[in-house]
Each structure stands twice: as structure tokens, then as C-alpha cells.
Design goal:
- There is one protein chain.
- By secondary structure, the protein is of the alpha/beta class.
- The chain has a single domain (about 1-235), classed as Rossmann fold (3-Layer(aba) Sandwich).
- It is about 30% helix and about 20% strand.
- It is built from seven helices and ten strands.
- The protein has helices spanning about 10-25, 45-50, 80-90, 110-120, 160-170, 185-190, 205-215, and strands at about 1-5, 35-40, 60-65, 70, 100, 125-130, 155, 180-185, 195-200, 230-235.
- The chain has a seven-stranded parallel β-sheet with strand order 1-10-9-6-2-3-5, with helices on one face. A three-stranded antiparallel β-sheet has the order 4-8-7.
- The radius of gyration is 17 Å and the shape is globular.
Length: about 250
């Protein structure tokens, strides 16, 4: 794992976007179709602001999946991740190859998951952009995360810490309004990605970052599994890295 500590959140977003874009541009020379996974959340605003402005991107050859979506959320809900991604990314990259939505309000959630698994199952993920939650989750794999399942997307329960984070970030009017279930890309599927670009700004994430990097690898700290990926770039800022004993390459 390579760790980069930026001076500001804006710089963090620029570096993460550039790193992922460089990989995709390089791979475009060898592959006809590329596959990218993108995250959501307040911590990813800077990433998207810079990613959509990256020059000479082969967007028309890139197929995009997203990490997770709440169960029962309509696409016009303020907290909808489909809405988030369409507004902050898809609408700003009009030549995008394809965007595969997670339909969290599908009438048959199991069928929706099966369809997603069939779509992404044969694909190689060239770059997966992601973050780390306050409880150490990856995507919506809250602790204790399932490290064993080989299903690409799974149905998960959201713990109270995760739901409180979503409420405190302003996505919902009350904690009770935050859904208790979500469709999430699984830990194993994330780890199959050829390259991981992890962006984690903000002091709220400092304890989660410390645990992910310095505690034992465990389902109780889902993000700790990132240390077992040999092509993972972790981008931090002074606030999110403030509890680390040391910085540099891990």
C-alpha cells in the first residue's frame, strides 16, 4: 500500500483523481473496454470535481459501476447515491461508455442483486475508487464484514454508527429516516480490482484510518483488508492522518 498525505482535502482529491486517471489512460492503450467503480459520500466531493476535468480520458470506452445504494431509496431522494453520481459525475461526462445503476427501490431486491452480479461478474475492474467510513467500513460492508462471500454484490444491514454518519452529514432529516439495509459491493469483489484508489479526508475518519493501518486485519475493521492489496493507493489529509504513528509506505 502506498500512502500519500496531502496538505488539503482539495489537493487530496486532485491527486487521487490524477492517479486513477493515469491508470485508465495507460490501460486504454491495451484494452478496448475499461471498467471503473466509483464511490459516493461527502468525502468524495473533491475527487469528482477533479476527475471530471481530467484531460484526454477515454470515457467512451469506460463502463462504470457504483459501490452501494440504500434499499428503498427512490432516485429523486436527496440521499440517493444514484442521484449523487448522476449529478456529480455522469451528467458531467456525457460521452461515458455506460453507467450501471444499483436500483435500491427495485420491487425485487434479490433479483436486482442477481442482475448486478451477472453484469459485473465477468468483468475485470481496472480501477476502484472508494473511501473509508467512520466505522471502518468499505462500501457499505459494516463491521463485522463478510470477508468470505464471493458474490459481487450483497444485501447488507447498516449499523448504527454508519447510519449516524449519514444523518450527521445532512443526507437525512433524522436518524430514524436512514435506511437499515443497502445493496453493497462485497469486500472480495472490491479486492479483485486491479487498482484501488482510496480517498479519506477529515478528522472524523482519523480513528478509522489508524485502525485500518495499525490494527490486525479483521472483519471488525473492514478497511484493514486494504493492506492485503498490492496495488492500493491511500490518499489522506492532515486531519485524517493525525493519529497515525508514522506515514509513508505501509
Amino acid at each position: 500500500m502506498k500512502i500519500d498525505i496531502s496538505r488539503t482535502e482539495k489537493e487530496l482529491g486532485a491527486k487521487a483523481a490524477r492517479r486513477g486517471a493515469d491508470i485508465l489512460r495507460r490501460r486504454a492503450g491495451d484494452k478496448e473496454r475499461l471498467c471503473m467503480v466509483i464511490p459516493t459520500g461527502a468525502s468524495q466531493f473533491s475527487l469528482f470535481e477533479h476527475l471530471v476535468r481530467e484531460p484526454d480520458m477515454p470515457w467512451g470506452r469506460i463502463d462504470v459501476f457504483h459501490l452501494d445504494e440504500y434499499v428503498g431509496i427512490s432516485p429523486d431522494h436527496p440521499a440517493s447515491f444514484r442521484r449523487y453520481l448522476k449529478e456529480r459525475f455522469v451528467a458531467r461526462v456525457p460521452s461515458l461508455g455506460s453507467f450501471y445503476e444499483i436500483i435500491g427501490d427495485a420491487p425485487d431486491i434479490r433479483a436486482e442483486i442477481s442482475q448486478l452480479n451477472a453484469l459485473i461478474g465477468p468483468r475485470t475492474i481496472d480501477v476502484c475508487f472508494a473511501g473509508i467510513g467512520e466505522n471502518g467500513h468499505l462500501a457499505f460492508n459494516d463491521p463485522p464484514a463478510d470477508f468470505a462471500t464471493t458474490d459481487p454484490y450483497i444485501l447488507v444491514n447498516l449499523d448504527r454508527v454508519c447510519r449516524r454518519q449519514q444523518y450527521k452529514e445532512g443526507w437525512f432529516d433524522s436518524l430514524e429516516d436512514v435506511p437499515t439495509r443497502a445493496i453493497s459491493m462485497s469486500i472480495r469483489q472490491i479486492m479483485t480490482s486491479d487498482h484501488l484508489i482510496i480517498s479519506v479526508p477529515d478528522a472524523r475518519k482519523a480513528e478509522a484510518v489508524k485502525n485500518a493501518l495499525e490494527a490486525d486485519v479483521s472483519p471488525h475493521i473492514p478497511a484493514s483488508i486494504l493492506r492485503r492489496h498490492d496495488q492500493c493507493d491511500l490518499f489522506l489529509d492532515p486531519d485524517s492522518s493525525r493519529l497515525l504513528e508514522q506515514s509513508g509506505n505501509a
